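Working notes for the structural subgroup meeting. M.R. asked for a predicted model of this chain before we commit to crystallization trials. I am recording the input and output together here so anyone reviewing the notebook later can reproduce the run.

Input as submitted:
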Amino acid sequence: MSLKEQLPPGPEPVYLIDGSSFFYRSFHANPDLKRSDGFPTNALYGVLRVLTRLMREEKPKYVGFFLDGRKPTFRHQLYPQYKANRPPMPEPLAAQIAPLKKAVELMGLPLTVSDGVEADDCIASLAQAFKAQRPVVIVASDKDLKQCLDGNVLLWDPSPKGDKLVRGADLLAETGLTPGQWPDFQALTGDSTDNIPGLPGVGPKTALKNLADFPTLEALRERFDQVPEKLRSKIE
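Returned structure, recorded in token form:
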């Protein structure tokens, strides 16, 4: 069954592709891929594999490809230590950015790179704008985009290990969380990948339990006197 056949009925879907997430993942998954002259092609290979498959199998009428813009982002202004744990982009990866942009251009795909924001920021904004008009398929491997899930917004990860299609109902069944609760869950647990700390000693299990009792961080703050003492002491 094709991806399009699994989408809600209605107008032609729009596909929003997080190129940066696949670019990094492919670079690390295929470390030895190079041209005969030694030029690295591992990141290019992974991204173009996703794009050619999407174009061949889904034949999308509406599609956009997004890459991270230049730093700093607005998140660095809010929290200077954002992603400070990451080393600089490896030169073999940086060398593949220009060829990737050229390949996307030659495929006739719209490319968006906005300085100061990341690819998933652009995707989230457009998903919000389009979802009332047509199905939105976010093509990405970034867990942060789960907050965008909706009755008309799906997250598709065409991984070499097996495709994964996630709907809002799937997230609820798997975690007990609605998409709107996903940012609060990450705020409580933190995100070590992005160097964002959570509450000390609060892991996924504790966060899920408290979000079941207090559906939002705002509700937790408003009913702070009802918060279990163990968690309250960590917040205070």
